[in-house]
Amino acid sequence: MINNQTYYFTSEGRGTLDLQLDKPVKQVYSKTSSISEVLSIKVEGLDSQQPLELLYFFEWQKIQYTYIIDASSNFKAPFELVINNRRENKSNPRNGLHLLTGVFSFNDQVGSTQIEIKDAENKSIFLLKTEVFPQKMDYKSDYKAMMGEISQIIQNLSYASLKDTFSKSRAKLTGRATQTEWWNILDVLFDQMILNLYIINRQPKHDIKRYEVVLPVEKVRQASKKNIEWFRKNGQHCNQDGIGLNVSTKSAFTQALSLKKYVSYDTYENRFIKWSVKNIIEQLRIYKNYITNYSDLLDYSPLLLKLNQYQSRLQSIIHENPFNEVTEFENRSYFSTSLTRGAGYRDFMHIYLLLLRGLEIADNDIFKIEQKDISTLYEYWCFLKLVQILNEQNDSELNYQDLIKVKANKFVVELKKGNESKVTFKNKINNTTTTIYFNKEFGKKGGNVFTFNQRPDYSIEFTKLGFEKSFWYLFDAKYRFDEKSDNEIKFNVPQDAIGQLHRYRDAILHSKLTDAPYRSAVKNLGGIILYPYPLSEKEFKANDFYKSIKEVNIGALPFLPSKTGLVNSLLKDLISKLPEEHFEQFIEMDRSEYSESQNQWSEWITIGTIPKSDIEKRREFISNTNIYHVPFVKNLNSKLYMSKSLLVYDSVSSESKLYQVKDWEINSDLELKQKGVTWDLRSPNYVVFNLIRPKSIQVPTKVGSIKGYRYTTPKGLSRYLETGDKNYFYLTNPSAARFIEEVKLLNKKCSVKWKNHENDPSMIEILIDDLNILSSDIYPPLVFRLGNEPIKLNDLLSKLIKI
Fold this sequence. Notes:
Blueprint: E1 5-11, E2 15-21, H1 33-38, E3 42-44, E4 47-48, E5 57-58, E6 63-70, E7 80-83, E8 86-90, E9 92-94, E10 97-104, E11 109-118, E12 124-133, H2 139-165, H3 179-202, E13 207-216, H4 227-233, E14 238-239, E15 245-246, E16 252-253, E17 255-264, H5 268-292, H6 301-318, H7 337-341, H8 345-357, E18 372-373, H9 374-391, E19 396-401, E20 404-407, E21 410-413, E22 421-427, E23 433-438, E24 458-462, E25 471-477, H10 495-510, H11 518-521, E26 525-531, H12 537-540, H13 544-552, E27 554-558, H14 565-576, H15 579-585, H16 592-602, E28 605-610, H17 615-625, E29 627-631, E30 645-650, E31 656-668, H18 669-675, E32 685-697, E33 709-712, H19 714-723, H20 734-745, E34 751-754, E35 764-768, E36 771-775, E37 783-786, E38 789-792, H21 793-802
Helix pairs in contact: 2-3, 2-9, 3-6, 3-8, 5-6
């Protein structure tokens, strides 16, 4: 588009209008083909003197206007320029004319727009209906997709909430549900629908029906009121011998009409339920055929299996009582309190109406297709897209959300700038949670002081198994570029926004003071600016603010409907990685909890056995005295003397008890004899442990085969008791524990055993495929031995991946 493009409109008696459009200096998409494909223009009142195909407006574009009309026209002065029902300016009289001139722009408003010129009596002289296009995203691939995704994500959250709130929800009063909407509602509410059908099965609506039958009079229990008429017409059963029922002095009847009653389930309500279920079965068949037509392109076998299961369950229900007794449903108007209030009937009816018409979601600003604040719209979309990405993580399910609520029987979207909302997802396997907040406020707590409360656009809190404290990540959405950057760096992230993330982190960390120094905790919080970078994600990887994410845990990422890959990878990495990786990769984090976890792998529990020789005497001695002894160890720095717990294993019964070590002392063999030892002692001196608080536990059977003593760790013993995985029991150092967790993520099988080493009782051997890997407490952190060579953890994992 050239600079100062001018459009001229005129009509006799209505004046003339000039519109001069400045070049949109912030326009990043040079191609306008996508705009011309969707552009809709309507002009009334004045005739255009140029083709309108290239007349389109952009956000922030300046438009100069000049309108001139003769004062003697049929319209009444003054004249006004009205943009989207907002008065912009009034005309002034000048030399027999009225002049209306000035400059306006749409700021960051996009979407449908309306420009009018009206007279003093509110009569329309000129009307232009068109659209304002965004500058920082492609209208066709990004803006339209953004609008569609907002609606789709809101609907999906509504479906997820429907299981708990469907009784409060309301079906739309008009229209029908789309095929996809119908399936989403059925899939969520299918189990509840089946439950209501079973309730109907146990307490079905029924009628008492009556019929008449001819019986001998002695068998008639309840005579029919029609007997007198029947006697007149059936004289063949009459006699004058007085046999049977005396009707008169001269006649008696041996047969009579008897009234019978029976329970019938062929009611209007049951016929409707059966008809509705058959209708759902038919819709399932149609939907299955629809899916099958696309099965060549994608694998829909799990969905098709579910559709078949749903059909089978519904078919079996309508072939059981009471539905196998009912006749065809007559489609007529009928009011039934059972359908609206009866147990089972009411909820089934509600579900069926939801299937028929779809959910009613209350009007909300973000659904309106009229003019929008594009920066606010972008902020809403970023949040909802982050919610969708988190929801699509493996083994994740919605656990809590206050974004969608039921008010006045409608689903209401509570997403509003300045109001806090949150959505929580739960991992179905390990129960860890991930919570995303919209406009969460971090305030002063516990008397900690900083400048003022902080409210980032989005905050993600995720928990890790075995760690009490949460990990946090902050996001801010910015619909703008850095206008002060060098020309060499195009479309860079606003640097003031990066500075704002640093301020967020500094202030929030001061509100969560710990014993760890501030500079050590600074990387416990990460921050990302999301902005509409127009080039490819591959090109953005060369940006300094992409590289800074790894260096300082603060940076920026492109985020548009067509550019979500980098954000998706970041979130997947944050949620799936082990908690230890967060501490190890982010240097100088708040390592207090990490160090505590590592210490639990470093503390040792001494394992000693009760030998088979003189075992009864040994058992009795330990039980009576709470004393366990081992031959004296000359090295006073041995782990043996630092053990806080002692695990005593009975080599015959395989029973074991865990004791806490009260203290230890050095005793001679004679001193031990004086304490009650009655069997032969082979060493002159012993280390004697005084034990307290015995606790019976289950340990692997191979423990009984050790000679002397071995070690385990409190963390390893705890994990073994929780999971039953005996590999944990043999771990003696945090590096080995970390390696085992990484091996599990690779789905590799391994076995761990103690390695007999005279000078290193902490050495263990890890067997994976054909690899024998050694780990020891005396090796450097995260360093192992493969063969005779040391190898770091990352190199070892790379080798395993290639196997």
